[in-house]
Amino acid sequence: MPTFGRAMLEHWLLDPQYTYLNHGTVGAPPRRVLDAQQAVRDTIERQPSRFILRELAFEQPAPWRPASRLREAIEPVASLLGSKADDLVFVSNVTSGLNAVLQSLPLTPGDEVLVTDLGYGAITFAAQAATAARGASVRIVEMPFPLRDPQAVVDTVTAALTARTRLVVIDHNTARTALLLPVARIAAACRARGVPVLVDGAHAPGAIALDIPALGVDWYVANLHKWAYTPRPCGVLWAAPARQAILHPPVTSWGHGRGYLGEFEFVATSDPTAYLAAPEAMAIIAEWGLPAILSYIQQLAWNAGQLLTTRWGTALDTPREMIGSMVTVPLPAAAGATDDDATQLRLALLTEDTIEVQLHAWRGRLWVRVSAQVYNDIADIERLAAAVERRIACR
Ligand SMILES: Cc1ncc(COP(=O)(O)O)c(C=O)c1O
User: What is the rounded CA–CA span in Å between residue 7 and residue 12?
Assistant: First the structure.
C-alpha cells in the first residue's frame, strides 16, 4: 500500500515545482498508464489494419482472439462502475456521450428537456441544440442557493416536471460548485412520474463509489480521464437495457443499424489507445485500493474546505454528504467579485505562486474549486491559503 501525499507525485509526470490542485479539470494519467498506452500504440503499428479492422470492435474478433479488444478493455471498467459490460460502451468523452443520448431521444414539438443551473454550460448548449432541431425546448431549473440539504434538489427538480417533460439531465458531481447531487433520489422521483433521467457523471468514476445500475437512472455518461486515471480522451456511456435500442452515436458510421454495441464501436477511424489503456488504470486503482483512494481524497477535500474557510473567514454552507473529491470555497470579498478579478488572481497564482487551481466568479463573489488527488496533501492547501492572503494584501 503506498502512502498517499506528495511522494505519490513520483507516479505522475506532473511538474513537481507546481502545486497541482486542478485534477478535476482534465485529469492526469499516472506514468504507468501512459506507458501502457504507448505499448498499445506500438502493438497497433506493427499491424495497423489487422488491429483496427479485425481485432478492435464488437463482432470483429478474428478467429485468433476470444473477444474484441474493446470488449476486453471494457470488462475491468464495468467492474469499477458496478455495470454489466454489455450495457457499457466507450465514448471519447462525456460531451459526446451526452450528445448521443440527447440527439437520439424521440422528441416532438412542444416537448421539454429539463436541466439545472448547476449543469455544465457545454451540456446545456448540447441540450438546446438537440431540442431546437426538433421544435422542443430546454427548461433550466434554478436550484436553491446555498444548497444545505440534498432533498432540496429532489424537491426542486420534481416541482419543475410538467406533462411535457421528456427527459431530466442531472449532474452527479457538479462542475463549478463541486456538489454531489442525490441522483438516485431524483431518479426515483422522476420514474414515479414516467420521466427518464440522463446523468452527467463527468467527475464520478474514481472520485466516488459507483454502482450505476443501482441508481435507477436510464443513461449514465462519465469520463474516466478525470478521476479514473485513464489517458485522455476516455469516456463511457451506460444505458439501461430497455434504453439501448434508440441510441445512435453523434457521428453515423459503419456501425449504423448494428445494435447498441455495434453502433458505438464501429465509429470510423479513431485512436483507440486511451480506451485500451483503461485496464492499466483500473489495475492501479485496484492495487492502491479504491476504498483507500476515496477515503483519502474525500477527506482531503473536506479538510481543504474547513482550512480555507477558517483562514479566509468565509463559510462552507455544504453538508459533508455533498462533498466528494473536490470542494468549492468562497474567497473573502476583498479578493474581488468579477470575471476579470478571477482571471487575474488565477493567473497570478499560476505564474507567480506556481499553484494551479480552478477559480471563478459566481453569484457576486469569487470561488476557488480545489481538487484533491492522492498526490496532494494538506500542505498544498496551506500554500493556497497563504498565497491568496498575500495577493489580497497586495490589492
Ligand atoms: C460536469 C461536467 N460535464 C461535462 C464536462 C465536459 O467534459 P469533456 O470535455 O471531457 O466532455 C465537464 C468537464 O469538466 C464537467 O465538469
Answer: 10
Tell how far the Cα of 121 is from the centroid of ligand 1, in angstroms.
Answer: 9
Q: Is 4 in the pocket of ligand 1 (CB under 6 A)?
A: no
Containing domain of residue 151, as a range? 47-284
CA of 26 to the centre of ligand 1 (A): 8
Confidence (pLDDT) at 60? 62
> Do residue 70 and residue 84 come from a single domain?
yes
Return the C-alpha cell found at 239: 444505458
Give the closest residue (by CA) to ligand 1 atom 14: 25
For residues 119 and 20, membership in a common domain is answered with no
CA nearest to 58, candidates 48, 72, 68, 73: 68
Q: Which atom of ligand 1 is nearest to the CA of 96?
A: 11
> Splitting the chain (395 residues) into consecutive groups of 10 residues, what average pLDDT does each group show?
95 98 98 98 97 84 82 97 98 98 97 98 98 97 94 98 98 97 98 98 98 98 98 98 97 94 93 98 98 98 98 96 98 98 98 98 97 98 98 93
Rg of the chain on CA atoms, in Å: 21
- Shared domain check, 388 and 247: no
**Do 153 and 296 share a structural domain?**
no
- Mark whether 261 and 319 lie in a shared domain: no
Q: Is the CB of 95 under 6 A from ligand 1?
A: yes
CATH number of residue 112's parent domain: 3.40.640.10
**In a shared domain, residues 152 and 226:** yes
Cα 32 to Cα 116: distance, rounded to the nearest angstrom: 38
Q: How many Å apart are CA 34 and CA 232, to the nearest integer? A: 10
